[in-house]
Amino acid sequence: MKIAQIAPLFESVPPRLYGGTERIVSFLTEELVQRGHEVTLFASGDSVTSAELVPCSVRGLRLDASIADPLPHFMLMLDRVLARASEFDILHFHIDYLHFPMVRAWRHRCLTTLHGRQDLPDQKPFYMHFGDAPLVSISNAQRAPLPGAHFAATVYHGLPADLLVPAARPSRDYLAFVGRISPEKRPDRAIAIARAVGLPLKIAAKVDKADEAYFRNAIAPLLAGDGVEFVGEINDLTKPDFLSNAAALLFPIDWPEPFGLVMIEAMACGVPVLAFANGSVPEVVDDGVTGRIVGSVEEAIEALPQVLALDRCLVRKRFEERFSAARMAEDYVRIYRRLARRRRNTAGAAIEPDLSDLGPGQEIAGGTRTHVS
Amino acid sequence: MKIAQIAPLFESVPPRLYGGTERIVSFLTEELVQRGHEVTLFASGDSVTSAELVPCSVRGLRLDASIADPLPHFMLMLDRVLARASEFDILHFHIDYLHFPMVRAWRHRCLTTLHGRQDLPDQKPFYMHFGDAPLVSISNAQRAPLPGAHFAATVYHGLPADLLVPAARPSRDYLAFVGRISPEKRPDRAIAIARAVGLPLKIAAKVDKADEAYFRNAIAPLLAGDGVEFVGEINDLTKPDFLSNAAALLFPIDWPEPFGLVMIEAMACGVPVLAFANGSVPEVVDDGVTGRIVGSVEEAIEALPQVLALDRCLVRKRFEERFSAARMAEDYVRIYRRLARRRRNTAGAAIEPDLSDLGPGQEIAGGTRTHVS
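The joint structure predicted for all components is written out below.
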């Protein structure tokens, strides 16, 4: 198929540093190319891809100090997409809202993956209004606040199988926390759990400007004691070693996490996950296989020995079955084909193809159909 | 003509409080309706107009605490515009960037007035790319950073003639400063000038969150001495009295002001303006008639007696000649008609009508043609 991928411009594809969405767009794009699809990637000019790249900004906007407003750059990108729209069987958008009015006339060739939380009051009326534009959620939990929206499927994220692999002889002598230092991610809970069970904790995290006061007031004092090491932000080079040697990943979140990429990064390393039951967690963690799902710090302390006892080979195996980039690409191709077929079947008959059987009743989720009512 | 006005959603049209763009859209819309045009106003649902209102949000987004992200609301509005686009002879946008890719197919029925400063590095490549979309600048100075953009004209803002009028017996016992407390507006210069000439200064200004530190550190200490009164933010009810009794308006700006509405508000009251030569100032102030234009605090101190001696009747007269809402509406109708004629002449012949004679060489500015090379 001829496929356009439209990525955010904030980071390159793949990103140099942080940037979950751009990373997933990269994994998907490379898998699609490898499967023989003709893929055109609309992304920042410093992106690296085996697809055809349409550079839509000199570099990732976040790395460019001269950028004051990202909007004009996104609109320039959309104009480039518009100019070539007729070439593609499918246009796959990863940029939230900006394209919806523009693509109305060819919306049934368009698919939009929602990458963020969807519980802001601004979002519900928006997706109600554009109720005939097919969407993809990255967990079933993510779509809960949007009952009127037109979800074609849930497609869980995936990683290339060889990106992160188990360590040959993991040290397993610390618990790991990876993410942002923020009240939603609850590093304070990770510290409390680690201290209670007497295991060292290593915190690999960045501190956003918005969270500096939280770090200073709530977290820094907790770091003073023994057994907790703050290692700062880790990158793609240091992450494999950091994750794969951990005894377990702590994911004690307190927000509606739409997916939680770090959970499957840990699983790829064979590292089990101790996670709090919020957002996507019950869908991503197989309780008793790839980790344990808990509701409180007390439950977490009680469950940790079970987490440490899980078979790391089985954790890796389950990752390969459910969260590979190959599976993610196959899920998406199945949706692309279904949209294209629906369009052909109705061509000339109706200008608004019936996509109702792509609604919440039929899901492609983690390679298996699940039902969400 | 059938005209659509597309306003920002941040404030109602007209705004309850601050909101220069929404205010101008209101003045223009009411004048067009009065001239017999069929006007449809796309704006927030709490707008008040004699045109047909298409409500695009419940209320002005800035007054709605539940709004986290304005973008989905603007995209909903654009979708409503799209649904009715074929009805209009002219669609006049006041919302910066968001519509440009969407209106490509009917861009020669679209006009965009730029209301803000245009010297950000993001803007030049944007308007170069959309070089065939006709724009209106609100001063010639505003367009200086955008040499490649397609300006159809400069149209200076205008006010309804009876909105602000001279006081019967103005007290003329203070100098006035109106605006935001910000480093660009330079209230410190106003204070220095007033103290040097020994006249009381009244500062009617709001303090934005971003400027709180500047207010606290740079301005509050200056307010401690004699002769300066900080009266806070004024509204439409208190503004007439505040402005019309002033001896002069001080406008000692230090930034590329795109227009400077308060200057013509003062002139409407017959109040002369002492302004610094930045941005639009040399176009808006007639030096020696409606005020004096200076380059430094020293020059301002020297010029103030001349400003106070200006004939307030002539100030008001020049306001009526150059800055009435009637003149503004006539300027815009002339551009609307020209765009429509150009479209008819080329219909069927070319899909890209030649609009070159609407370029910078021919301007409609303040009712007279001016040349900008």
